[in-house]
Amino acid sequence: EEMDHSTMGDMMEGHMSHDEVVMLNDSTGENELRIPSILEQDDEEGVVYTVRAQRGKTEIFDGTETETYGYNGSFLGPMLRLEKGDNVKIRTINELDEATTFHWHGLEVAADVDGGPHDALEPGEEKVIEFEVTQEASTLWFHPHPHEKTSEQVYNGLAGLIYIEDENSKSLGLPTDYGENDIPLIFQDKIFDEEKQLNYSAAKNDDGTIGDTLLINGTLNPKLTVNKEKVRLRLLNGSNARNYTFKLNTGDSFVQIATDGGFLNEPVTLNEVTLTPSERAEIVVDFSQLDTEKDLALINEDGSILLPFEVSVQSETVSRIPGLMNDFSLTEEEMDLPVTKKIELFGMMDMVTINGKKFDPERIDFTQQQGVTEVWEIYNKPDMMGGMIHPFHIHGAQFKIISRNGEAPPENERGWKDSISVSPDETVKIAIQFKNKGVYMFHCHNLEHEDNGMMGQVKVE
Ligand code: C2O
Ligand code: CU
């Protein structure tokens, strides 16, 4: 269908080409970073937890209450710490006044506990889910996934972390003191209105809502006090649509030790790391090796100050970064497999599609056999404006990147992934196997794109 100029103009208004994304305000560093509490098990036999989605009021700005959503609290959620091999039971409760779901992003579980849009709980409803943790140590997260309402509910504050630990992660000698030298960092950008409220419908952009105000773990103007030691930062891009390229203001390097779904085989030394929405990276910054006379901060690519560090005393803690951390491999067989599924990401604003189609909960787009590895090829087709990055995510499995535009992926992507950045005109090949059966979503994790239909379904049989 031909579009006339005014339609085109309307559509273009608000379209986020990445060079014109509004900068974040610098963090003034006046508030110590909030560390999410660790979720306690219920007083019951076994590994049993309760997670409730609820509304609340949160003092983000001094002396003002902002209406927010949270899990087991008014804003964001606690950290759920699981061990490989655990048989977990979670009682999920919807105390909101709208439908929601509980999605475990990155967790390899059966589709009926995955919390996709088919699993809505109405207000007041609850559901007990059970699963075994079969995957390795990693940093995952959970968030809602209701049909066409994911972006608004995440924006309002529904997001929490999952740490999986295993024998390997406990024996490596890495920093593991939660909140001391093992720090979760959930990055989210927001727009606050004059009343300091999160007014989603006013803030919303169909091409991905981008804010000027950064919250880390829900903290406005955060700073992090650390000891002069190795500090592990578990970075989660929990934003609706903003991409970040993290670096140190001094230009010093750090090492990346983990991707979305597990440890890299070896630490990778970097000066910056880019995360698109829903991606994670674990990095270690060695403050004992930095010039702490200088003001140190984590900054974004554009120079905005995200997280100033205050370096306090010399620490007694001796942690290390082993040279070998995992046995991840991409086999010859996997690299030689033919492409059996093709995904074409296209469009902008509310005209986004996958393979020319918008999400239809009644339509199965692909089928795949349980336990069989297939190669998917994901292509981001540019549009007349050049196009934009789409962060592509698949539920229920961790996968391996085979190539980006025919080349081996960068060293810090040679590990388990569940979300990948796909740039305009880029083709990414991945090898993926599902351990469990059922219908899983795959979609763009720019949450407005997801809600606008940039999502499909794979049925694992
Ligand atoms: Cu992070 Cu379909 O989700
Ligand atoms: Cu997208």
UniProtKB/TrEMBL annotation:
It comes from the Bacteria. Coiled coil: none annotated. Keywords: Metal-binding, Oxidoreductase. Residues 54-168, 197-289, 336-461 form the Plastocyanin-like domain. CDD domains: CuRO_1_CueO_FtsP (cd04232), CuRO_2_CueO_FtsP (cd13867), CuRO_3_CueO_FtsP (cd13890). It holds the Pfam family Cu-oxidase. PROSITE patterns: MULTICOPPER_OXIDASE2 (PS00080), PROKAR_LIPOPROTEIN (PS51257). InterPro entries: Cu-oxidase-like_N, Cu-oxidase_2nd, Cu-oxidase_C, Cu-oxidase_fam, Cu_oxidase_Cu_BS, Cupredoxin. PANTHER family: BILIRUBIN OXIDASE, CUPREDOXIN SUPERFAMILY PROTEIN. Belongs to the multicopper oxidase family. This is Multicopper oxidase domain-containing protein.
